[in-house]
TrEMBL record:
Pfam families named in the record: adh_short
Record family assignment: Belongs to the short-chain dehydrogenases/reductases (SDR) family.
Keywords recorded for this protein, A-Z: NAD, Oxidoreductase
Lineage: Bacteria, Bacillati, Actinomycetota, Actinomycetes, Mycobacteriales
Organism: Mycolicibacterium aromaticivorans JS19b1 = JCM 16368
PANTHER family (alphabetical): DEHYDROGENASES, SHORT CHAIN, ESTRADIOL 17-BETA-DEHYDROGENASE 8-RELATED
Name recorded for this polypeptide: NAD-dependent oxidoreductase
NCBIfam families given in the database record: PRK12826.1-3, SDR_subfam_1
Length: 274
């Protein structure tokens, strides 16, 4: 292990790795020396999501980018809602790599609408992917991490909307607040095994989700909602690059953050304080 490769010899599992933040996290952790295991649905995951889904080609690009960093990667088309599928992926990863040290629960989706108006199906899509998907990841990964006996770090990608609620996305906020609750409780349960659990809270990231144009129809119908979306405290000319969030993820994955668990880490340019 060297200072520029702090994850040398370790294995990281990233959900939703085909593009956006997930891809950036895969590549950055690979640059830090970790072998990578990743999954993505690579196709439509709901009928109420206003942006295009990831594709198998996206996942293939992630595989190529990780391999270019000189580490190994195992990638598969699995939806985080597939409880048994995630368990199979982790069992295969342990068989192939012998350990699991870092988990980045990144997979997530978003849609728009007022809470009393959205169809029940729309509510369920968001809860099932964002919250139950994280729960499934926990159930697949934690036993393997405990058995390996190496401690480790679980990083849940929540959202600024997991701390500071926004209008027009109550279902999304509920899912992301739920991620925080599960992460905090889990941190207390797995601490005795040397496993840390923290959540990352982003705002305005340059991904398919962050560029979802369907949000503007909500703002057109309810223009006062826009006042809940401030630019943040730091100068902001554009959406945050995913690789900037990956630096926070790497910090949480490495021993540099050994004192942090059950923490909510903002990656939001101060948005939540404005």
């Amino acid at each position: 292990m060297t200072s520029d490769r702090p994850l040398e010899g370790k294995v990281a599992y990233v959900t939703g790795g085909a593009r956006g933040q997930g891809r950036a996290h895969c590549v950055r952790l690979a640059q830090a020396g970790a072998d990578i295991v990743t999954i993505d649905a690579c196709g439509p995951v709901g009928n109420h999501i206003g942006y295009e889904p990831s594709t198998p080609e996206d996942l293939a690009d992630t595989v190529r980018l990780v391999e270019d960093e000189g580490v190994k990667i195992s990638a598969g088309r699995v939806d985080v809602r597939d409880h048994d599928g995630q368990k199979r992926v982790i069992a295969s990863a342990i068989e192939q790599f012998g350990r699991l040290d870092v988990v980045v629960a990144n997979a997530g989706v978003m849609s728009w609408g007022r809470a009393w108006e959205i169809p029940q199906e729309q509510w369920q899509e968001i809860i099932d992917v964002n919250l139950t998907g994280f729960f499934n990841t926990v159930q697949a990964c934690v036993p393997a991490m405990i058995e390996a006996g190496n401690g480790g770090s679980i990083i849940a990608i929540s959202s600024s909307a997991g701390i500071k609620a926004v209008p027009g996305a109550g279902h999304y906020c509920a899912s992301k607040f739920g991620v925080v609750g599960l992460a905090n409780s889990l941190a207390l349960e797995v601490g005795e095994y040397g496993i840390r659990v923290n959540s990352v809270h982003t705002y305005g990231v340059d991904t398919a989700l962050g560029n979802d144009l369907s949000m503007y129809s909500t703002f057109e119908k309810h223009p006062h909602y826009v006042y809940s979306f401030s630019p943040g405290a730091l100068p902001t000319e554009s959406l945050i690059a995913p690789n900037q969030v990956s630096e926070v993820v790497l910090f949480l994955a490495s021993d540099a953050s050994a004192l942090l668990t059950a923490a909510q880490i903002p990656a939001d340019k101060g948005y939540m304080k404005v």
